[in-house]
Amino acid sequence: MEFIFHRPSGARVCDKLFYKDLRLVVLENDALRVVVAPEKGCDIVSFVDKASGVDIMLRLPMGLRSLKSERSLLPLPNTFSSFYEGGWQELFPTASGFGKYYGQDQPIHGEVFLLPWDYAIIEDSASRVCVEFRVRTVLSPFELKRRMILDASSPEVRFEESIENLSGVDINYMWGHHPAFGAPFLSGDCRIELPKSRLFQGDETALKIPPETEPRSVMMYAMDLERGIYGLKNERMGLGFGMKWDHRLFSKIWIWQSMHSIEGSPYFGREYACAIEPFTSLPHQLYGKQDPLPVIRGRQKIETSLSAFLYRGALPK
């Protein structure tokens, strides 16, 4: 893809590509290529290791589809599955099947993944590129900002993020990242590495990924995290994907595995997926009095940073 950039090496960014009617923003350096679709929830639709050419992200048969002509679907609770191509979504201000949120039905996994985000290229030099994405919610009074930063040769993308309550009302919320991994990176050669934690609704057997010939359905959670870090390593490839974050904010990890286990629409057994998701809280159905949702005060802004990286060898400390 070098021809789309105005320099041949170092950090680079381009926003001149389209997939169907969706604009793509590409951040690239010598180590990796990251493709973002800001008009479709700011999904990260591709995360490629340049050395091997392997894209670690899940790609479902339904493919990447545009919501531009179908915004009337926003309040429907089944819209996530209908427009889920795989990849990596940001989930806010609710997640899972939340139901009514302050009197309004919420789509499954909240609304920001369904909305078009604005963006601006903040920095574009050979040593560093930075793109800021932002969105204001429709059904709730929030603004979410995400800056993605890529240096010249590092296999790491840094995220600087904030959520801001634009109202004077104190509001409960859920916030999380939903990166999902698929073949060829995801295989029976993969294992999940977690920080010291307590597993809920699952056990360590689920940390070893089964081959595609073995159907599996898992939804479990890691709690009481000692640190904010995880890795997913394909031992045969010698390639891993990891994330780091502030575990005081994203205090849980959701682990979803669906390996040819959903026979109904829209998958019909065609999915082979694993998502490992830093989250502020458990799903709405589980949190109860033991794990109340966090609160953002009126006019408050909450800022945080996290990173996603490729690695070989041991998971970096």
* H/E element sequence: EEEEEHEEEEEEEEEEEEEEEEHEE
Major sheet: arrangement of strands? 9-10-11-12-23-19-18-15
* Distance N to C terminus: 32 Å
Helicity, in percent?
Answer: under 10%
The gyration radius over C-alpha positions equals 19 Å
Number of strands: 23
Please name the CATH topology: Beta-galactosidase, Chain A, domain 5
* Main pleated sheet: 8 strands, antiparallel
Treating each run of at least 4 consecutive H or I residues as one helix, how many helices? Answer: 2
What is the global morphology? Answer: globular
Structurally, the number of domains stands at 1
* SSE-based structural type: mainly beta
Describe the protein's architecture and organization:
Mean pLDDT is 93; it is low at 72-77. The chain has helices at 79-82, 284-287; strands spanning 12-19, 22-28, 32-37, 43-49, 54-55, 88-91, 100-101, 104-105, 118-124, 128-136, 142-151, 156-165, 171-172, 176-181, 190-193, 198-200, 216-223, 229-234, 239-245, 252-259, 272-279, 295-296, 301-311. 3% of the residues lie in helices and 44% in strands. It has one domain: Distorted Sandwich (Beta-galactosidase, Chain A, domain 5). The two termini are 32 Å apart. Strand 18 (229-234) and strand 19 form a beta hairpin. With 317 residues, it is an all-beta fold. The strands form 5 sheets. An 8-stranded antiparallel β-sheet has the order 9-10-11-12-23-19-18-15, with no helix packed on it. Strands 6-14-21-20-17-16 form a 6-stranded antiparallel β-sheet, with no helix packed on it. A 5-stranded antiparallel β-sheet has the order 1-2-3-4-5, with no helix packed on it. It contains 2 helices and 23 strands.
